[in-house]
Amino acid sequence: MTAPAPGLDDVRSRTFPFPRRHFISAGDLNRLEALELLDLADGFVALNRQKAKKLDLLKGRTLMNLFFENSTRTQSSFELAGKRLGADVVNMSPRSSSMSKGETLIDTAVTLNAMQPDLLVVRHASSGAASLLAQKVDCSVVNAGDGQHEHPTQALLDALSMRRAFGRIEDLTVAICGDVLHSRVARSNVILLQQLGADVRLVGPRTLMPSAVDRWGAEVFHDMREGIAGADVVMMLRLQLERMTGSLVPSTREYFRFFGLDREKLARAAPGVRVMHPGPMNRGVEIDSDVADDLAISLIQDQVEMGVAVRMAVLTALAARLDNA
Amino acid sequence: MPATPPTAFLNARLVDPESGYDGPGCLIVADGVVADVVHRPDYDGLPHDVEVIDCEGAMLAPGLVDLRVKTGEPGAEPKETLKSAARAAAAGGVTSIVVQPDTDPVVDEPSVVDFILRRARDIGLVRVYPAGAATKGLEGRKMAEIGLMREAGAVYVTDVDRPVVDSLVMRRVLSYARGFDTLVAHRPADPYLTAGAAANEGEFAARLGLPGAPAMAERIMLERDLALAELTGARLLVDQVSCIEGLESLRRAKDKGVKVWASASINHLTFNELDIGDYRTFYKLSPPLRTEDDRQALIEALAEGLIDVVVSAHAPEPAEEKRLPFDEAAPGAIGLETLLPALLTLAHEDRVGLVDLIRAVTLKPAQLLGLDAGRLSAGSPADLVLCDIGAPVVIDADRLTSKSKNSPFDGRRLQGRVILTMVGGRVVHRP
Prior knowledge:
The complex is a heterodimer of chains A (325) and B (431).
Chain A: H1 31-48, E1 62-67, H2 72-84, E2 88-92, H3 105-113, E3 119-124, H4 129-134, E4 140-146, H5 152-166, E5 173-177, H6 184-195, E6 199-203, E7 219-221, H7 224-227, E8 233-236, H8 252-259, H9 263-266, E9 274-276, H10 289-292, H11 300-324
Parallel strand pairs in A: 1-2, 1-3, 3-4, 5-6, 5-8, 6-7, 8-9
Chain B: E1 7-16, E2 21-30, E3 33-38, E4 51-54, E5 59-62, E6 64-69, H1 82-91, E7 94-99, H2 110-123, E8 127-130, H3 146-152, E9 156-158, H4 167-179, E10 183-186, E11 199-200, H5 203-208, E12 212-213, H6 216-232, E13 236-238, H7 244-256, E14 260-265, H8 266-270, H9 292-304, E15 309-311, H10 319-322, H11 339-348, H12 354-360, H13 363-369, E16 384-394, E17 413-423, E18 426-429
Parallel strand pairs in B: 1-4, 1-5, 6-7, 7-8, 9-10, 10-13, 11-12, 13-14, 14-15
Antiparallel strand pairs in B: 1-2, 2-3, 5-16, 16-17, 17-18
């Protein structure tokens, strides 16, 4: 093994106070726990930029990626995170295997549980699926997105990207824009960013806002220009195509006109504003390529890089909890 | 029913919803009917060969009449059979059940009505009355054989959980049913506003990422139903009103003299949306559990009589239909065996008077359907429940009689233990 990257010297000797066996919601972490994970992830960022990227913190551990919904980005991010920590990684896509034929989520869980994985990373189209799975298995479950509920590692990687760009999260004004109604990314981000002291705004047409959204502790805007005025971070959400053709918004061109992010709207944000997007982007629908590809303002590539580091931190902390169990 | 020896219930607390009497008394049963009632704890001149039951002050009331019970027979017997439902009813002090027509085949013509009545006769535990479908195949398009089903023994018509969307079809169903003096029950829910919904629309469901049904969806459909009931002069039963919005509409229509009655399920009187907690599918119901404000309003509406009837909304679903992600899980909860103790909670908490509570599950539903039940006077059928209303019970879903165990009351502490259930003078449950 090579020398660990800066900040990782003491990883082996430390125990991480990960509160639960599973990581289902951004709300599972308190402020200190979240900051500790971000610090740990910072070290992994440095490691990942070295030629020799491998550690043995998860040596002997088995990580299973269980993706009922396809996501190349998130799945490969978890896969790399596991491999760089020395775990054996297995990818399962139940939709394309015999497992999908009439077998319920619980059956799948029981089957996989019998194979003795240590960490189960799950993505599913139904809200609450990760929580349901966690009740039925002996290993640690990481929620990699459950329906319209949460995507907590996305929130952590977003927070890490912001902290590295601004040096802090506290008192940053973050405008989360677009389809908040269907977004698990928005839900996890609102919870985590508020926990870390950011001033969160939600921006979008009323048809894409959850009911009682005014009770989320975030200021709500239905005019994009007002919503991003003075914002330090503009976080765009993905709008699925089937929701744009008359069902929730009239058309893609109308959506882009009022809620798409372009230079003109962005000019109202704070000087030094950074733009984020969880990907994959619908260019010309929610975000103009001109903005997305401008490396001086876009953090979108950073987010992908931070994704691997944050997931390494989460897996390390959960595995340390298993080691000490 | 076969002849049984006479029975004397002595030292009982009689609760008679017809007369409003709640006090000490004795009741003599002979030849399947109530032979005599006295309002004293002891009885002079007991007949010969009588079986004497010392009630020790326990409540003796008419057996419960449950207007909304699903079984799986015919078509889905692993969920529940007529026999297992009848046994669950007997265990819960329910002596008459109305089984819903959403079976396979659907009860939309007289031969299926007849099948259920014959099966029930063979089982012989509690009285089973079929409800017929309002429209063929519950599809909301063509009227079912309402008159022939009525003749065969169907006690009302309903499309159960599927609203009749087409207003013209609904008008004709109401209008036609009126000609046969047949009650039409309808679940008010706008199908477009509730499409895909898994919970009550609001802050809680939004945080869980669950698609929600707004309470207004109930009011929208209910207002239409009430307008059509007014137009046709038909008798309408609002099936499971669940929210303040629905109660407001109901009140206006009743004040206006529309021939409308309403039921509430015991679940909506007991739980609210927060009971879903961490995606617990036993609390996934249709209509969904609403807010605590809605629940409180339902209790008040029951106390003042705006809600006429309480139902168990017994809906057995096996584990494989419930142990799923919340949005995929089947809605519904079993309730026959827990209806009475859950209902008694409202009396123990002094929210609704005991006699009024019992009336909402006995006399009122019986009157609504024209059944001779729900009273404790000489000559009435001896359908009775003897219940120790103060006895603490902890509900254990695995030990309930139903074939399906999807009880939201699992683990709950209630008060009220059924000591004996009698149907037509015959003891059908006595643990």
